[in-house]
Amino acid sequence: MLLDRLQADLATLNEQALRRVRRTLDTPCGPHATVDGREILAFCSNDYLGLAGHPQLVCALAAGAQRWGAGSGASHLVSGHYRVHDELEARLAAFVGMDSALYLSTGYMANLGVLPALLGRGDAVFADRLNHASLVDGALLSRASLRRYPHGDVEALTRLLETSDAPCKAIVTDSVFSMDGDLAPLTELLALAERHDCWLIVDDAHGFGVLGPQGRGALAAAGLASWRLIYIGTLGKAAGLAGAFVAGQRDVLAWLLQKMRTYIFTTGAPPALAQALLASLELIEHGDERRARLNALIEQFRAELRLTRWRLLPSATAIQPVQVGDNAETLALAQALWDEGLWVPAIRPPTVPQGSARLRVSLTAAHGAEDVRRLTAALKRLEQTL
C-alpha cells in the first residue's frame, strides 16, 4: 500500500541518518535565542548583518502595515502592485547598478522563474554542479538541455560551451555557494558569456548586503557590468526580511515581466514588506561597521579553529563549513553541540554530495568574539572526544 511504502521510506531515512528535524524558536531571530524551550547560542541563520530583529525594521514594517494594510490582494499584474513596490524596485536596481528590477516573494520563486522565461526546448543551460536546488529546478522547468560542469571548473565549462550549437545559452551560478562558502569565478564566467553569446545568471543570495562596496553584492565586488548579466538578490538573508529581486538590462526585465510565471501567477508580496525593505536598504548601504565586524569574526573563527580529523573548508565568507564526512558522526556532533547550548545545523546528502556531510556554521554581525570563542573551543574538544 502507498502508506506502507511511505513509512518504509521514512524508516530508511532514519537508518541513514538523513531524517530532518524542525526546531521551534520562541524568540526573534538572533544569536541568543530560546529554542524548543531552552536557551541556545545559534550559528545557523542567514541574518548576516543582524538586521532581522533591528528596531528600525520592526517599526518600518508596522508603519507599512498602517499605511498599506496587511496584504496586496492580487497578483502584481492585476491589482496587487503598489506605489511602494515601484519605489523598492527602483531603489534595488540602482543599488546593484542595474537598469531595472522586479520584486518577488521568495528567492526560490525568482530562480524558478528566470530560466523558463528566457530559454526553452533546444536551448542550453550550463550550471555549476553545486548550484542551489532552486536553480537546478528552474533549469529543468525551462526544458532546455542542462549541462552541469564540475564546481568552479572554468576549463570544463569552456569545453562544454565550445561544443554547443544551441541557439540560446545561459551560464548559471551561485555567487557564494551556500554549503561551501566559496565564491564563483564571476570574472571568468562573464568573459565566457561574452565569447559564446550567453546570458550569465548570478544568484547572489549570500552575497547581497555583505559583499562589495556598501554591500552592493558580488558583481560590484568583482567590478562587473554587462547587459548579459541577470542578477538575483535575496532579501531574507542579509536584508533581514523576506522576498527577492531580479535585476538587469531594461528590455530583459520587460520580457521577464511578461513571461516569468512565478511573477505573473502569484499574489504580490504585502506592500508593508516593501516599505520595510526600503528601510533595510538604508541600513545595508550605511552598514560598513557591521560588515567589518562580521569579517573580523570570520577571521577569528578561522584563526582559532585548528582541526586534525575534521576539515574546515576554505571560505572567506560568513558561511564556514566544517566537513565531517559520515552522516551519523555529523549528527552526533551537532547533537553534542546542542547539548552544550550551541545550535549548528548538520548538513547531509542530498543537500551536499555523499560522504561530505558537514556542520554549516553561519556567522553574523550580531555575534560577539566570545560567542565565536565558545564555539571553536567546543569543536576542538569534541574532535578529540566524540
List keywords for this structure.
globular; 14 helices; Aspartate Aminotransferase, domain 1; seven-stranded mixed β-sheet; Aspartate Aminotransferase, domain 2; 17% strand; 386 residues; alpha/beta; 2 domains; 14 strands; four-stranded antiparallel β-sheet
Describe the structure.
The chain has 386 residues and is α/β, with parallel strands linked by helices. The protein has 2 domains: 20-49 and 288-385, Aspartate Aminotransferase, domain 1, CATH 3.90.1150.10; 55-285, Aspartate Aminotransferase, domain 2. The chain is 42% helix and 17% strand. It contains 14 helices and 14 strands. The chain has helices at 2-15, 55-68, 83-95, 107-118, 133-142, 154-162, 186-196, 218-222, 250-259, 261-264, 271-285, 288-304, 327-339, 369-385; strands spanning 32-35, 38-42, 100-104, 124-128, 145-149, 169-174, 198-203, 229-234, 244-248, 311-312, 319-325, 342-343, 346-347, 357-362. The strands form 3 sheets. Strands 3-9-8-7-6-4-5 form a 7-stranded mixed β-sheet, with helices on both faces. The protein has a 4-stranded antiparallel β-sheet with strand order 10-11-14-13, with helices on one face. Helix 7 links the parallel strand 6 and strand 7 (198-203). The longest helix has 17 residues, at 288-304. The chain is globular. The mean pLDDT is 96.
What is the topological layout?
Blueprint: H1 2-15, E1 32-35, E2 38-42, H2 55-68, H3 83-95, E3 100-104, H4 107-118, E4 124-128, H5 133-142, E5 145-149, H6 154-162, E6 169-174, H7 186-196, E7 198-203, H8 218-222, E8 229-234, E9 244-248, H9 250-259, H10 261-264, H11 271-285, H12 288-304, E10 311-312, E11 319-325, H13 327-339, E12 342-343, E13 346-347, E14 357-362, H14 369-385
Parallel strand pairs: 2-12, 4-5, 4-6, 6-7, 7-8
Antiparallel strand pairs: 1-2, 3-9, 8-9, 10-11, 11-14, 13-14
Helix pairs in contact: 2-11, 3-11, 4-5, 6-7, 12-14
